[in-house]
């Protein structure tokens, strides 16, 4: 094992990069002498800083590594790291080109993720279908390392100790209450719980719990400020912390409520219970946060919306399905949240 060096490709998106963390934890634990270099965007490096013997290379796709000539420069830079294997956990045009450039160096093993595109296409076709669970994304990642000769057992995964909480003076959090994180936004409308319904969830839960709101950008910050100003036990964390400190805050929660989005994965990586709300996507597609039981996922009424799921990523809209998530009542969300937190 000594002298082995794996390049790991996963450039985006945040949730998919976050799902690499449990797999790399197992890799480090199983093969402590293995050198690993994660090739990902600079803003994601913080996700892996807990891992020993893991190094990073952050491509600049807006500058030095832009376009085909930039990709070739990236290849030459990565070649100087003297890898013995490459694990492509992304399988997009950029990573495919990099594998192509490395192909003449036959002693550098290559393996890439099987995304299961055909089976996902069958599950999202616009007709009723049997919801057979597909292989979870984290297991697809693990199989890439198995192809390279590094089999992993995700059942042996161990969570690290909870990190130190950042300074929370700016949020004025109630220390005597349990903390519930709520991330009400998603990249696509079809997998975002209606905000008027989520406000009802926030209003109820904050009566006896500290609710902390998570999001990104000015628009989300402004919306969440309205809720934070309206209720005494609600705090808006958007823009308060840099990414690493926000991760440490998430690690202190007693529960995270999120859409099919990155915040659920970030919380799950810290061994937190995560309640996920699903719209046009579905847990059976394999993107459930790591280690979460099936009963922590709430989906729309499939008797009313039998075509679900209609999209892998939530970027496809289907006529008359725009209100599918309204079939998940605030009462249902609240009751499950209270059940989870009472057992935590």
Tag the structure with descriptive keywords.
344 residues, alpha/beta, six-stranded parallel sheet
Task: Summarize, please.
With 344 residues, this protein is of the alpha/beta class. It is 32% helix and 13% strand.
Descriptive overview:
It is built from 11 helices and 11 strands. The protein has helices spanning 14-18, 20-30, 67-79, 93-102, 117-123, 137-147, 195-205, 217-230, 243-250, 262-268, 330-342; strands at 5-9, 35-39, 54-57, 85-88, 109-112, 179-183, 210-213, 234-236, 255-259, 274-277, 297-298. It has a 6-stranded parallel β-sheet with strand order 8-7-6-9-10-11, sandwiched between helices. The longest helix is centred in the middle third of the chain and has 14 residues, at 217-230. The chain is globular.
Q: Compute the separation of the termini in Å.
A: 40 Å
Give the strand tally: 11
CA radius of gyration: 21 Å
Mean pLDDT: 97
Question: What percent strand?
Answer: 5-15%
The secondary-structure class comes to alpha/beta
Overall morphology: globular
Helix-strand layout with pairing:
Elements: E1 5-9, H1 14-18, H2 20-30, E2 35-39, E3 54-57, H3 67-79, E4 85-88, H4 93-102, E5 109-112, H5 117-123, H6 137-147, E6 179-183, H7 195-205, E7 210-213, H8 217-230, E8 234-236, H9 243-250, E9 255-259, H10 262-268, E10 274-277, E11 297-298, H11 330-342
Parallel strand pairs: 1-2, 1-4, 2-3, 4-5, 6-7, 6-9, 7-8, 9-10, 10-11
Helix pairs in contact: 2-6, 3-4, 7-11
